[in-house]
Specification:
Number of domains: 1
Helix content: 25-40%
CATH architecture: 3-Layer(aba) Sandwich
Number of helices: 10
CATH superfamily: Alpha/Beta hydrolase fold, catalytic domain
Strand order of the largest sheet: 1-2-3-5-4-6-7-8-9
Low-confidence stretches: none
Radius of gyration: 17 Å
Largest sheet: 9 strands, mixed
CATH class: Alpha Beta
């Protein structure tokens, strides 16, 4: 697969890189960012995939989270893909809303027209992107983890729960834990997946856990001053699903923290350390 480098920066003795390529799954050009720690100069390193939230691109996390310092210390690569397909041919929300369409792919495979041609983010993240990364970068795909924020937290949790042999650990900041039960998810799923709510459950973390998803190390941080907590994120539903099934997740409520990258930057070090332990 051909990729084109569009940016490169030295960072904590490693390299922060950005690339573009034409994706077979989404039928459009896709951007992604890669941080390679200093250790990647000598050996293949473990890799963590980061999935960002609504309205974001691959660059938000790279520029705001402060993750590179910790990735360099632990010797792990971080891959940050975009949040949706993009381009003139890619359909968007008819009203230009920020919670659906461009920047809001929800990390699923759309089944409904016109979305199903391009909005195949689940296959892009789980299949196409890992093959591309393994081909072009010194990473050990057998030591992979995944994490994300908000919509990306939903993506990280559901993808890991459905692919427990592909990832050794999963973590999330402020995830949408039950998109079948919140306005963001109901809007997106009704468009991408249609009116059959049964089909929605394949992309709902709480439902996957209740259906017996294989347990893997899971860490979730949720700010208690998050404006979206009660209506959209509903962390208590994940706590209930884990309690009911005995799923041993670590779910931390963080007093005073909101939904922003200030929150992510405050705890990203502990998340990378969590994954580094699982990736040894």
């Amino acid at each position: 697969m051909h990729i084109e480098q569009v940016a490169a920066n030295r960072c904590f003795e490693g390299s922060q890189l950005r690339f573009t390529h034409t994706a077979d799954t989404t039928h459009c050009d896709m951007n992604f960012s890669v941080y390679l720690p200093p250790a990647a100069d000598q050996e293949r390193v473990p890799v963590i995939y980061w999935l960002s939230g609504l309205t974001c691109t691959d660059e938000n996390f790279v520029q705001k989270a402060g993750a590179q310092r910790y990735a360099a210390e632990h010797g792990v690569a971080i891959i940050a893909p975009d949040t949706s397909p993009r381009g003139d041919a890619v359909p968007d929300d008819a009203d230009g809303a920020w919670d659906f369409g461009l920047g809001a792919g929800f990390y699923l495979n759309a089944t409904q027209t016109p979305w199903n041609t391009h909005y195949q983010m689940y296959d892009y993240i789980t299949q196409e992107l890992p093959v591309l990364i393994a081909e072009h970068f010194p990473v050990d795909q057998d030591r992979s983890a995944i994490m994300g924020h908000s919509m990306g937290g939903h993506g990280a949790l559901t993808i890991a729960l459905k692919n427990p042999t592909q990832y050794r650990s999963v973590s999330a900041f402020s995830p949408i834990v039950a998109p079948t039960q919140c306005p963001w998810g109901e809007k997106a799923f009704s468009h991408y997946l249609g009116d059959n709510r049964e089909s929605w459950q394949a992309y709902d973390s709480c439902e996957l856990i209740r259906r017996g998803a294989e347990a893997l190390p899971m860490l979730v941080d949720q700010g208690e001053s998050d404006d979206f907590l009660s209506e959209q994120l509903k962390t208590e539903l994940l706590e209930q699903a884990c309690a009911e099934t005995g799923y041993a997740a670590t779910i931390r409520r963080q007093p005073g923290y909101d939904h922003s990258y200030f929150f992510i930057a405050s705890f990203i070090g502990s998340h990378i350390a969590f994954h580094a332990r699982a990736l040894r």
